[in-house]
Automatic annotation (TrEMBL):
GO terms for biological process: defense response to virus; negative regulation of viral genome replication. Belongs to the 2-5A synthase family. GO terms for molecular function: 2'-5'-oligoadenylate synthetase activity; ATP binding; double-stranded RNA binding. One of its GO terms (cellular component) is nucleoplasm. Residues 11-39 form the C2H2-type domain. It comes from Owenia fusiformis (Polychaete worm). It comes from the Eukaryota. This is C2H2-type domain-containing protein.
């Protein structure tokens, strides 16, 4: 079993220093997050009793995908409404310095290399490289950090000029990454190119931890046209396919929208992201951006408080997901925008995921746990 110590009743992952309560929990975490082989059968909690998977009754197995059962390290097995959720987030989810420093150093080394050598390969000047994803937004979860790198390039007349050059840019970007992977201190494995033109790859330095990275090129239309409003006006005159290519140039606005929120909101986003990664089974997990927007929308509906009861906030986000799932089920084929992108008035973020209803059902079941038993239907306060 991969642990460093067993102090204060916790086991500590040797890879990311996440603390877990049981050997089974540590084993499951190591398997899911670090790719190690399982040493124990998975253990779940159901109605307060611990069972191995093969001990769960047949009639219960059909409900597993609706979150009737939780892993032994799940926050949702807590029976006491006074449980300190903020402490849980700080100890279990916030990346600590020991994890964050080497991760940042690795990504910074890659960005520095791009800034120094990529322009020569692409034949375009680099304006800047922006770090987005959970790393840039300040919502990273310990042991589960993602980073998106957006390379803003100069030298284009307009967005259509950039689009015409994009296939060549993507090909040269892949060539650059392959050569970078041959360096003594770097390893890069290219996985695929998304429909949006993002090159997805795994990266590590000096035989350290592997990191999942997406990198894509963009033309800074906001700088070129002078404002987001002018970019949106130009987008309005384009076809739907062309509009989609503007997404990368709006990265900085989307990044700042999340990054500017209070620390407790970003901690709540961490908790919601952790929930979707560990409790959403049987369906694909949604991308983080839609979950971030719904969490922030729920927070605004609760009064946009700088300081609030995180446990209540989590409950209301789960209820928000439940109600949104029902809305999506009835409105998914309409022309209405259900989750509006804060920088792109034409984008409906909800259309990037096909399982909002099932996700909402899972969220609704989670909201019924004893951790939230003191929150009444008439109590809408986040205090």
């Amino acid at each position: 079993i991969d642990w460093i110590n067993h102090s204060f009743g916790y086991l500590t992952c040797q890879y990311c220093e996440k603390k877990l309560k049981t050997p089974n929990g540590l084993d499951d975490h190591s398997h899911r997050k670090h790719g190690t082989e399982r040493k124990f059968p998975p253990v779940f909690i159901r109605r307060g009793r611990r069972r191995s998977r093969n001990q769960i009754p047949c009639d219960a197995m059909s409900n597993l995908n609706l979150n009737d059962a939780y892993h032994s390290d799940s926050i949702l097995i807590e029976q006491n409404p006074s449980y300190n959720v903020d402490k849980y987030i700080k100890e279990e989810l916030q990346p600590n310095e020991a994890f964050h420093r080497p991760y940042n150093q690795d990504i910074d080394a890659l960005v520095t290399l791009m800034q120094a050598d990529l322009a020569q390969v692409l034949s375009y000047d680099i304006q800047e490289v922006v770090k987005s994803g959970s790393l840039g937004k300040g919502t990273a979860v310990k042991g589960n950090v993602d980073v998106d790198l957006v390379v803003f390039l100069n030298g284009f007349r307009n967005q259509k000029d950039f689009i015409s050059k994009s296939p060549e840019i993507v090909a040269n970007l892949k060539s650059f990454l392959r050569e970078a992977g041959k360096r003594r201190d770097m390893s890069i494995n290219i996985e695929k190119t998304s429909s949006s033109g993002a090159v997805q790859f795994k990266f590590r330095r000096n035989n350290g931890e592997w990191h999942d990275v997406d990198v894509m090129a963009a033309f800074d239309n906001i700088r070129h046209l002078g404002s987001v409003e002018r970019v949106n006006a130009e987008m309005a005159r384009q076809s739907e396919d062309v509009r989609k290519t503007y997404a990368a140039c709006l990265t900085k606005e989307q990044l700042e929208f999340v990054r500017s929120k209070p620390a407790k909101v970003k901690d709540l986003i961490r908790l919601v992201k952790h929930w979707k990664e560990t409790h959403v089974t049987g369906i694909p997990s949604p991308k983080s951006y839609g979950m971030e927007l719904l969490t922030i929308e729920a927070w605004k509906a609760g009064g946009s408080l700088q300081d609030f009861n995180t446990r209540k906030g989590f409950y209301y986000v789960l209820k928000k997901l439940e109600s949104f799932g029902k809305l999506w089920q009835t409105q998914k084929n309409s022309s209405s925008i259900l989750i509006k992108d804060i920088a792109d008035p034409f984008a409906d973020v909800s259309k990037r995921y096909d399982h909002w209803y099932e996700l909402g059902q899972k969220a609704g079941k989670c909201a019924k746990q004893n951790l939230f038993s003191d929150i009444g239907l008439s109590d809408r306060s986040w205090y």
